[in-house]
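dumping this here before i forget
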Amino acid sequence: QVQLADSGGGLVQSGGSLRLSCAASGRGFSHYVMAWFRQAPGKEREFVGHIAGGSTVYADSVRGRFTISRDDAKNTVYLQMNSLKPEDTAVYYCAAGLLKTVAAIKRGDMDYWGKGTLVTVSS
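structure:
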């Protein structure tokens, strides 16, 4: 069993930066694929990116602006968000999964989820 606590959201101006954190409790953190998703008001949840074995995959909408990293010693994954745009406004969720294909990750087929942290980007 893994519990995830995502944090770091807030209000930022367009062009600004934020770093989200996701702290995991439980065993075997290093074995998990860790992903970030977001859900904007009135929209479906969408894949942001994931990290597995040091490799990262990003959605086209955030590639080049967002960076996912992890510190397995701290059981924490990060989402560094730069050059934020108003359309990045959403609740951001971290998620953990074992033995997932990229397709499964992208559709949100993950095993554990954080409760989400709100990011608001003002224009």
